[in-house]
Amino acid sequence: MTVVELSSKPPAEAVFAGFYREFYRPVHGYVRSVYPSYDADDVTSKVFEIAWRRFAHIPAASQKAWLFGVMRNVLRNEIRGRQRNDGLIDSAIFARPTATISQDDEAVSPETVEELVVGFNQLRDSDREVLLLAAWGGLDADGLAVTLGINKNAATVRLSRARQRLRDVMDPVGEIEKRGGQSHDGVA
Amino acid sequence: MMEWPEPFDLLTSLNPIDTAPLAAGEDPVADAALERILAASDDTVVSFNERTGRRRRWVVPVVVVGVLAAGGAAAAVIARRQPVDPFQLACQRTPTLVSDTYMTALDPSRSFGELCAAPWLDGTFGTGGPPALTACVGSEGIAYAIPGADTVCSTLGYAGYDPAPDSEAQNIRDANVAIGELLDADPDGCLDMETARREYRKILDAHGLADWVFTTDGYVYDDNRPCIAVAFIREQRLVGLPGVPKPG
Questions:
Q1: pLDDT score at B204
Q2: How far is CA A146 from each of CA A65, A139, A170, B89, rounded to the nearest angstrom?
Q3: Are the Cβ atoms of A96 and B40 closer than 8 angstroms?
Q4: What angle do CA B71, B77, B80 make, to 5 degrees?
């Protein structure tokens, strides 16, 4: 007689596969778009290798933010690997995450996008990082806190200040506010 | 002039990232990576830092024997030195030579607990914040922050961290920031070799590094890597000029 064990719990591999398919594109797309000089396939694979080994410990409420935190660490290790291979410190590369901004929205003029790119590139690395994690990574204050390893209040303040600095470099005379532009610095 | 009411909203509207869940069979590269990950055992799925740790594992018995033999002296006098690498801090998870390690930027104006807090909060090492950390310097000249008391450095064969101001390290960090700002200010974020040599020289001279010499040995500089970055090689007082791809 064959005894078949039945379980209502799906195997961990199947659960992880679902998790992987849900978050693959956000992680891969973020690396490819924000850190174009790195191999997005390789970095994403390393992020999910770590996620698989620590799958039981990933906080359920902040899975994507946790993955983005791992992604930051993996990218740091990639930098360190380059340094070790070269015997050198490529700190300038490390210090300058870049953003590829493309224009698909016809309602926005190329000049406006150009202004944004110029203004954005004038910001410090830390400002650009928090802006992109929020704008392109889709992280709210709780998520930013998890990814950046800071508390929620600090994440809110950091994003708010980065948004203000972006506003300042793009609009030093305050035209946006004069024309009734709204500022939504509060994040959930 | 801006046509959009809020720059952050404009940035958000330009988000190029597709976040839709991936269907099985939709992306062969992603599927293959998933198969590799699931097929890997604990021994084959290793992070970069664990690979480093494995290489070091052979050193452990030698170090332990040495410390045991000199235990009394080590407890009384902790040799201290300053890190050679002015940029990096290695935050260790455990007081061992095979620890997971989180690399972050070395910043003498902040405590090691602050600098290493992230992995102890985001779940990489833990979520309850960093334990008491002791700063050490490894034989390769990198600063480490390791859980444990003062004696942990000598136990692992490291020197203690000398907190005295290291003006040259600060000059290197400041020069690096200045070069980063120079690149940020460039419309393309890309300097050719001639411009980089000229502008980097000015920055080095202004930061007390006038005797450092440029080198291009071992670097690629061609049409695919037309932008000149910078690499500080402190032991030889050299500034490497590696070619890198254009940003974006």
A1: 95
A2: 6, 10, 29, 21
A3: no
A4: 115
Rounded to a whole number, what is the distance in Å from the CA of B15 to chain A's nearest CA?
Answer: 5
Specify the pLDDT at position B109.
84
Per-residue confidence (pLDDT) for residue B76, from 0 to 100 = 38
CA nearest to A178 within chain B: B5
pLDDT at B59: 18
**CB crowding A65-101: b at 16 or more within 10 Å, else e:** bbbbbbbbbbbbbbbbebbeeeebbbbbbbbbbbbeb
Q: What is the pTM of this model?
A: 0.49
**From CA B208, how far away is CA B175, in angstroms rounded?**
9
A124 three-state secondary structure: coil
Cβ(B206)–Cβ(B188) below 8 Å: no
Q: Is B164 on the interface with A (CB under 8 A)?
A: no
- Whether residues A96 and B180 touch (CB distance < 8 A) is answered with yes
| Confidence grade of residue A160 (pLDDT, cut at 50, 70, 90) | very high
**pLDDT tens digit sequence for B160-172:** 998 888 888 889 9
CA–CA gap between residue B72 and residue B80 (Å, rounded):
17
Nearest-angstrom CA–CA distance, B154 and B134 = 11
Q: What are phi and psi of A69, to 5 degrees?
A: -65, -45
Mean pLDDT value across residues B84-104 = 82
- Better-scored residue on pLDDT, B135 or A116: B135
Q: What is the pLDDT of residue B78?
A: 59
pLDDT at B80 over 60: yes
Residues of B in contact with A58 (CB under 8 A): 123
Sign of the CA dihedral A27, A28, A34, A37? positive
Contact B248 A36 (CB under 8 A): yes
Q: How far apart are CA B180 and CA B166, in angstroms?
A: 21
A92 touches chain B (CB under 8 A): yes
Q: Which residue has the higher pLDDT, A65 or B218?
A: A65
Give the integer Cα–Cα distance in Å for A111 and A130.
Answer: 24
Predicted confidence band of residue A185 (pLDDT cuts 50, 70, 90): very low
- Compare CB distances from A181 to B6, B13, B87 and report the shortest one's residue: B6
| Strand ranges in chain B using DSSP code E only, listed in sequence order | 80-81, 88-92, 101-105, 133-137, 143-147, 159-161, 213-215, 227-228, 231-233, 238-240, 243-244
Q: Report the residue of chain B nearest A146, measured CA to CA.
A: B122
